[in-house]
Fold these 2 entries.
Entry 1:
Amino acid sequence: MTAISAQLPALQVVLPLLGAVLAALMRRGTPAFALTLAISWTLPFISGALLYQTLTGDPISYRLGGWEPPFGIEYRVDVLNAFVLMLVSSVGAVILPFAHRSVASEIDEDKHAWFYCMYLLCLAGLLGIAITGDAFNAFVFLEISSLATYVLIALGRDRRALLSAFQYLIVGTIGATLYVLGVGLIYLVTGTLNMHDLSTRLVEAYAVYPQPVLAGLAFIVVGVGLKLALFPMHVWLPNAYAYAPSVVSAFLAATATKVAVYLLIRFSFGVFGKAVAFPTLTVTDLIVGLSIAAMFVGAAAAVYQTDLKRMLAYSSVSQIGYITLGVGLANQAGLTGGIVHLANHAIMKAALFLALGAAVYRIGTCKLNDLSGIGRRMPLTMTAFAIAGFGLIGTPGTAGFISKWYLALGSLEVGGWPLLLAIVASSMIAVVYVGRVVEVMWFREESPHVKGASEAPLAMLLPILVLAAATVYFGFDTRATAGIATRAAEMLIGGLR
């Protein structure tokens, strides 16, 4: 067991990569699903072991190929990225049982094995971004996950999914190009790509070459901002989530943007923070301003949507604003709120998209008027939807309240009452779009589409209920979310001194 535990960082990425190859070779959906399920359920145990090690000891340094860092590629795991690894792998494992029936109903049979291949490939890329300690290796994994994502979006039968995937490809390519340009600049002035080594060398490099270092930071922030859909760079997200297959929308909303936010936090605080005093830069004010705009514009746009997947997509733009607000506040309470909302939003949004996916499976549509009265036909599914929706609002007793509490504390510390009022006011807009859906689902007469509809199948229902239960559980027991996020924020803020 000792020999295996020493290889856990590599296994975190290698298992889904090998599984993707095997799933493609199988060419049939059912065995590919079984393989993907086995791998997906293994990954949280690996992530959990890594998280436990980082919580009880020092950061883990895994040297690939026996080459000593910074010359070789290093997988470096600390509390922050162990938390992200646990989030991505756990959400991926919970979502996957839902996929078997959903994929069968929304994707052509001859593409089922390719779906599971791309799912594992995307998962490997996302986990690789989170675990690697090499700036260029992060770019490689970023491209792996992005290429798989384009395919996953395009696999749906809706022809608009092809256009959405192409739009995402264009924006994603621009973002990746900006990111690698930034990495190239900091490599020129430091001679290293190892993130841990960069954090030390940039101190000296910034004193000699301040303009290239700041330009590198700017390229990286904008490039990653495109990937995480920071307003106004969010144009690709609504169509991508709306027209992708239901399980893809849930998976991407819960994981892809969250890993991009992690990358922003890692570079802002872990790589550049010590050298350029990130909290004092004007870029933090810009991030705060864009985050507030995202909170209001995304929520306001969600109010006017009649397609509920588009509504949740614009809601994601708003919720990403809360996460990046914590980054822009650049204090311990705010950063804790951003990190914990990274996890809480993943849980809540996955539950919401899966609940809609179950409705699509039963009645073939997620248009608001077509779902009139569906709560009486699918009570468990739509109760879970309501609970997760209340979490988005930040209702006390849900995980979303914990996130906004920490963000409120951070806002009061930096900007006083105006920032706090912005958080409260934007949350009130969420009351409108969530409340409207709950009212239509539960309190209106049944539409012709829901006549004869029944509860979601057990394999689809269980993941929804687990995520809804987690929304409530983490609203009371915050040790595994806010507790770890606080430790991560302490580590990041402490590293700036």
Note: Residues 279-497 form one domain.
Entry 2:
Amino acid sequence: MKIAILSRNKELYSPSRMVEEARARGHEIRVIDPLRCYMNITSHKPSIHFKGEPLEGYEAIIPRIGASFTFFGTAVVRQFEMMEVYCLNESVAITRSRDKLRSLQLLSRKGIGLPITGFAHSTKYTKELIDLVHGAPLVIKLLEGTQGLGVVLAETYNAGESVIEAFRGLKANILVQEFIKEADSKDIRCFVVGNKVVAAMMRVGRKGDFRSNIHRGGSVHKVKITPEERSTAVRAARIMGLNVAGVDLLRSNHGPVVMEVNSSPGLRGIETATGKNVAKMIIEFIEKNALSSNTKTKGQG
């Protein structure tokens, strides 16, 4: 097969691991920077060009679209869909999962467990918003934040009011959520491929930090998940429409709650923590499913 990985940096662990596994299985694979692509959107003959050459003959692409270039990155994915190339994660699913508010609304509609979450535009109702999530301590999140950036724990009522008013003063869109104290600065990353959790790890925040992100200095450990956690992760990925996803869960007193569904989950942490060859599993999934007829949206999203 001829496969392309859409990634800004071919030296990163995740794309390099998938390149390694694809070549070991006899595939032709290449890492392409989506921001250096340009497109011809002509009717009946859409095309994509990279460094002066047309990208032709590809049977599958693996999008690794960073949050900072979601708009253009998903436009490139849509163009491949229009060319009837199989996309591991489709443009609509990536866009859906990147919008924190929209993704939580979709998960809520399907009955997935979530932290109590509030959203408002006006600061006139800050007190009511904080009360909605059971008061302090509470978590305040920028909708555009990633990797733990733009996430603040307000330990008191007054601190919550101040942070919310400051963010709104900057015209930032925010969510407020209940603080799941019993999670104890730990979360679980379930790595979903197709309709199964192929690996899971626990992420533990560094001392004094309630965020468990590896990029913030957290550590990772292999973890045994419950059937309910497994089912929740698979359902969350399916609701987003993602074939490959990192579903982040917290263990609360009322069962697993989903914090986020990531459309470009990293491989380093999960492979290191579990010893599983997740990159190989992704390539095997593509081998079984890479037919143009399996691309649902064909650029229509």
Note: The first strand starts at residue 2 and ends at 6.
